[in-house]
Amino acid sequence: MNDPFEEKLRALRxxxxxxxxxxxxxRPPEPAARRPDRRILWITFATAAAxxxxxxxxxxxxxxxxxxGGTPQLVAERSQRVTSVRPLSVVTDxxxxxWRLVEVQWVEEDTLVAADQPSAVQLQDHYRTVVPVAIHxx
Length: 138
What we know:
The chain is an alpha+beta fold. Helix content is about 30%, strand content about 35%. The protein has a domain at about 70-135. Strands 1-2-3 form a three-stranded antiparallel beta sheet, with no helix packed on it.
């Protein structure tokens, strides 16, 4: 392709370098900022690792407050209760029997009571499922 602009660019010759730039390039490079010695980095890393290992061993070996006075006595109680029943629809199966689909929601509660301290913990798990209920079979 003959592009007049590219031909003009090819015809151009490089210009002379400015004196200030030529002088800066001729000087030897300035020394870079001193980097920390590798030995100091390794000593810092080893000290931090030793501190982490010491803390982990201390936390692992120290007895917890719950186990210092013996094993705590717990009384547990479990209960379940239905919170809601909601009818959804009526369907028929391949035998032409009618089924009512019902959504059932319930809660399971676990209660833990400490025998040596007046404290209790109650855990609740909420569940929901769809249950088919037979309407009438002959």
